[in-house]
Amino acid sequence: MKKLNNLAESCFLKLFFGFITAAFLIGAICMPDRGDMFPGLLRIITNPAKISTNYFALGGFSATFLNMAIVSAICLGLYCIPGAKANNVSTLAFLLTAGFCSWGINVLNIWPTFLGVVLYSIVKKEKVSANVNAMLFS
After folding, report:
1. Which of 29, 33, 40 lies closest to 69, judged by CA?
2. What is the C-alpha separation between 23 and 101, in angstroms, rounded?
3. Quick one: the chain helix, strand, coil %, rounded to 5?
4. What's the chain's average pLDDT?
């Protein structure tokens, strides 16, 4: 516990994000429909991602939790870019993105908005690591 208290805010939040990601992955493995995990994830990815699409009904519980784990791992990886700092706004961005992974965001449709923020960073000559929160909010 003493080591957690001595961690910098950014390091603690990255550890917290890793815990959330691991919890989604463990949840995917522990669901009773885990035999349908990968076909369910394929159904989630290939169907139109309307905001009102319930991924639990579409792909099943294990596939939805796997989708949440994969997208959360990608988001955690973005915060591990050199120079990226996680702060209180990052917590909101990460948890909102993870929550929307159950109905509307999947591992395939996050890339256009992420690449849009990268393009913005290039045009404005800003560091991509400074705009990670914008990627997750987009």
Report:
1. 29
2. 14
3. 75, 0, 25
4. 91
